[in-house]
Amino acid sequence: MVKTISLLTLALSLAGSSAKAQDSTHTAGELRLKRYELVLGSALAFSLVDYLGYNIFVTSNPAKTQQNLLLHIFDAAFGGAINYFLYEECGLSSAISFDVMWWTWDLDLGFSGWGDVINPAYPWINRTESSLNTAHWHSNSINWAGWTPVGLMRQPNSEIALSTLYAQSVIGFSISMAILW
User: What residue spans define the domains of the chain?
Assistant: First the structure.
């Protein structure tokens, strides 16, 4: 389901006709800075909404299976809205840049970061009960990142080393920023 949503979002982003939004009142450098600001701000916003959604829909609710589906639908809708906003404001390259960060696990690292920054009380994910702990992140691998490039090259639900996911995130972030240049 998550793979389908991710690939559908990417395909819809690529289906647009304009490569860059046009704004004759700004210099090229100002437009580049605007793209960076909006994409990075959108990434922070998405990871925060995902963090809050997960804790509201899943952590605070014992019927987690159905709630996970609701969270994924909500995330897909919010991610689609962000893609539309970025496309309209800054062009296709900004939407693609955001999707590259989403696809390469950068936003999941942001999710965990929000738990460390906000540090709410249990049962929400926080510094002591982090998603890293509950999802075995303090072991050396996880099995739920199957939508990422590394995950797509492996068997479903296979373990992926955290060091591999961190490297993938750095590479994805670098590519994402290069797209905006």
Answer: 29-180
105, 169 Cβ separation under 8 angstroms:
yes
pLDDT digits (tens, 9 = 90+) for 99-142: 999 999 999 999 989 988 998 988 888 887 665 554 444 567 88
How many C-beta atoms surround the C-beta of residue 30 within 10 A? 11
Position 53 scores a pLDDT of 93
Contact call for residues 149 and 171 (beta carbons, < 8 A): no
